[in-house]
Amino acid sequence: xxxxxxxxFAFDVDGRSLTEAKRxxxxxxxxxxxxxxxxxxxxxxxRVLDFFASTGLRQTFFVTGKVAxxxxxxxxxxxAAGHEIAFHGYSHMPLCHLSDAAEADEFDRTSDYFRExxxxxxLGMRAPSYSFGPRTPGNMRRSxxxxxxxxxxxxxxxxxxxxxAGYWEIPVRPEVDDWLHCVRLPELGYHAPIKSPDEVLAIxxxxxxxxYREAGCFVTVWHPFVTMSDRYRSVAPDLLHHIRQFDGVxxxxxxxxxxxxxxxxxxxxxxxxxxxx
Length: 277
Ligand SMILES: [Zn+2]
Known about the structure:
Elements lengths: L4 E4 L2 E3 L1 H10 L6 H10 L2 H13 L4 E4 L1 H6 L1 H9 L3 E4 L12 H19 L5 E2 L10 H8 L3 E2 L9 E5 L2 E5 L9 H4 L14 H17 L4 E2 L4 H4 L7 H9 L5 E3 L2 H9 L6 H6 L3
Parallel strand pairs: 1-9, 1-10, 2-3, 3-4, 5-6, 6-8
Antiparallel strand pairs: 7-8
Organism: Paenirhodobacter populi
GO molecular function: hydrolase activity, acting on carbon-nitrogen (but not peptide) bonds
Family: Belongs to the polysaccharide deacetylase family.
């Protein structure tokens, strides 16, 4: 079988919900950061849509329920353009810090909103701050979700049995998270100096090259206010140019990656699929 490497430039859209969640956790953002995060869900989100439109990509946004409620027209634009919207919590509070009822409510409020407002079922998730907890698979199943992308350990999707069913884990590698390289925010634990756009591009290109050699799935953890900022805006198109030089690359949404896993089209999934019996 010819090699196929699936790629998704996935964005997490936290916006104002991140400001509010951090405030609830006792962390006050600077006024400048509050403004930046407000733009994350508005003008920076628009930049992502424009970038995807100009390059012909249909990709996945992991959006909090709060952001979606704030920005219904932008959600409608993203859906109309063929992008997938997936679950990123309702409030962006870490799921594992919540009570049983509060975690369930995060799923219900967000899933209900998308179903009632847009007639869309959310098929997958990425936990806020990678906070996937022991109750999360049960909430996913109840909400009809089939994949998660919160694990940071691999480029090979796998089936994770959970209860009577299970879900596809579509993991990422840590170096594809733009916060790691482009955000210095000591109050949130990001102390390292930010890297130059060239350095960031080189890290992403190396990560993709390794993923390609391993025939994995290359999935990003990007944020509109970071990767679409004036400083870093050239990185995504430059990475796209790099990736498009390789044979057998398919850009797709996360739900399409999950569907390919389900259909056994991704070789690394075969063992996992067999393990479901
Ligand atoms: Zn987030």
